[in-house]
Design brief:
This protein is an alpha/beta fold and 480 residues long. Helices cover 34% and strands 20% of the residues. The protein has 3 domains: 91 residues, MurE/MurF, N-terminal domain (Udp-n-acetylmuramoylalanyl-d-glutamate--2,6- Diaminopimelate Ligase, Chain: A, domain 1, 3-Layer(aba) Sandwich), CATH 3.40.1390; 208 residues, Mur-like, catalytic domain (UDP-N-acetylmuramoyl-L-alanine:D-glutamate ligase), CATH 3.40.1190.10; 137 residues, Mur ligase, C-terminal domain (Protein-Tyrosine Phosphatase, Chain A). The strands form 5 sheets. A 6-stranded parallel β-sheet has the order 9-10-8-11-12-13. A 6-stranded mixed β-sheet has the order 17-18-22-19-20-21, sandwiched between helices. A 5-stranded mixed β-sheet has the order 2-7-6-5-4, with helices on both faces. The chain is globular and about 75 Å long.
Length: 480
């Protein structure tokens, strides 16, 4: 939350930064910035944005009633905004009218962030692993900085709106920022770079996430490369040494390019897999446990270690910090009990699906491997081929049983069935959560390893909850 009593701008100052017309109380203080009228409080600036389900201009009066004293609205919605300002709640308030409230939000976020010149800005982007890598970097770096010096965006508030709102949480005590930068449309990454202007950027990988919106991996690489659009030669980029787009990302960009990975991370000696318990890492003379399983998570950790090396931080403090990282909700989250339940259902794309299957193939369970694989979203025209490829991958894996869930996953089921024609009840597809639960519950036996992997929209964590309720595993209270 924003520091109580701290004023970000006055209403007139905000209008000047945006270059927008204003009327009303130009001295109204802006202490918080919100885009949800329900979050408005005394001296909030409410920014009216159009959404998928609602238009913020319909909630101006509600925001004023909750204490907002400044409203940024679209010039095209002037009459609606003026009607809202005719209410008694608008007393002492200021109305700002701009061509684009979203651009206004971004301009204010950039200006507030620029005023905090002491802030070292680290950005994290990539097709998968962004949030986990952000958490790894924060954990690794935090012990080397004073308490309260590190700022980061919560969850995955990494979009044009989310990153902007996160900037207003920054204050004079923050000397280090670790912010995730995501995109799902063309042009968005350039906007994020203009808001944040990172000093250091980690690109986890260039994969196929959001390919349906961008069109191709080459297109994704070109859009991701815009994260460097504010580089002037003083900044540093960190790129995975095995990424097929590594050289493309580096070409023509001013600044230093540092590679990370099993081959090139400076100070890295070796890593020993502990299966689902994570890794033992040897780095710069330190020996420590990194509790996130899978090669993909090891690479996320190496990105953090490489960045810490470049900053010249104390290796012992860095190792202690990275060893403290914990799985986030729904990301490589291990629940134990009668079965081992690997809950990795926050997001899914072909790359992360393959990584999850490879991880479970690499460990030896007490009994069988049971893979519950849901639909992958936002793949556009590539969806059918990608789901068929997933089915073939799963069929050739060590999974003893394959349960496919969701409409798009039917293509995976059919592809797997072609390779496992005699699979019987160990190969199943449904669109019903109730039916999925019945089939999985009937199949499970003590000692099984169960992988749950799907896009967030499938809400596959509900299956995990029901398996916990049925006594197969216990809820993990250590996840962040």
């Amino acid at each position: 939350m924003t520091e109580q009593g701290r004023q970000l701008f006055s209403a007139g100052e905000a209008a000047g930064i945006i270059g927008a017309a204003s009327r009303g109380n130009l001295e109204a203080p802006v202490r918080t910035v919100v885009v949800d009228s329900r979050k408005a409080s005394l001296d909030s600036l409410f920014i009216a944005l159009p959404g998928e389900r609602a238009d913020g201009h319909d909630y101006i009066e509600a925001a004023l009633a909750r204490g907002a004293k400044t409203v940024l609205a679209a010039e095209s919605q002037k009459e609606k905004a003026l009607r809202a300002f005719s209410s008694t709640a608008a007393s002492g308030a200021c109305l700002i009218l701009a061509d684009s409230p979203l651009r206004g939000l971004q301009a204010l976020a950039r200006e507030h962030r620029r005023r905090l010149q002491q802030l070292l800005r680290i950005g994290v982007t990539g097709s998968s692993g962004k949030t986990t890598t952000k958490e790894c970097i924060a954990a690794a770096l935090r012990p080397s900085y004073p308490s309260g010096a590190l700022a980061m965006n919560e969850g995955n508030l990494n979009s044009d709106i989310g990153l902007s709102l996160s900037m207003f949480e920054l204050n004079k005590d923050h000397s280090l920022g670790v912010f995730e930068m995501g995109m799902n449309r063309k042009g968005e990454m350039e906007e994020l770079a203009a808001i944040y202007e990172p000093d250091m950027v980690v690109v986890t990988n260039i994969g196929s996430a959001h390919i349906g919106m961008i069109g191709s991996r080459e297109g994704i690489a070109a859009e991701k490369k815009m994260v460097f659009s504010r580089f002037n030669g003083k900044q540093t980029a960190f790129v995975w040494d095995e990424d097929p787009f590594r050289d493309f990302l580096a070409q023509g960009v001013p600044g230093r390019f540092v590679q990370f990975g099993l081959k090139s991370s400076k100070g890295f000696e070796k890593a020993e897999s502990l299966g689902l318990q994570g890794w033992k890492i040897a780095w710069q003379g330190q020996r420590f446990l990194f509790p996130l399983p899978g090669r993909h998570n090891l690479l996320n950790g190496l990105a953090a270690l490489t960045l810490a090396f470049e900053l010249g931080l104390d290796p012992a403090l860095t190792a202690k910090g990275l060893s403290s990282v914990r799985p986030l909700f729904g990301r490589s989250e291990l629940l134990t009990g009668r079965v081992e339940l690997l809950k990795d259902c926050y997001n899914a794309n072909p790359d992360s699906m393959n990584a999850a299957i490879d991880l479970c193939d690499s460990v030896q369970p007490k009994a069988r491997r049971v893979y519950v694989l849901g639909s992958m979203r936002e793949l556009g025209p590539e969806s059918s081929a990608a789901h068929e490829a997933l089915g073939r991958k799963a069929a050739k894996s060590k999974g003893d049983a394959l349960f496919f869930f969701g409409e798009e996953a039917e293509a995976s089921f059919l592809a797997a069935k072609a390779l496992r024609p005699a699979a019987g009840d160990s190969l199943f597809h449904t669109n019903s959560m109730d039916e999925l639960f019945r089939q999985v519950r009937a199949y499970l036996q003590d000692g099984d390893l169960v992988l749950l992997k799907a896009s967030r929209g499938l809400a596959l964590e509900l299956l995990a909850d029901r398996l916990v309720e049925a006594g197969f595993a216990e809820e993990n209270h250590n996840a962040s």
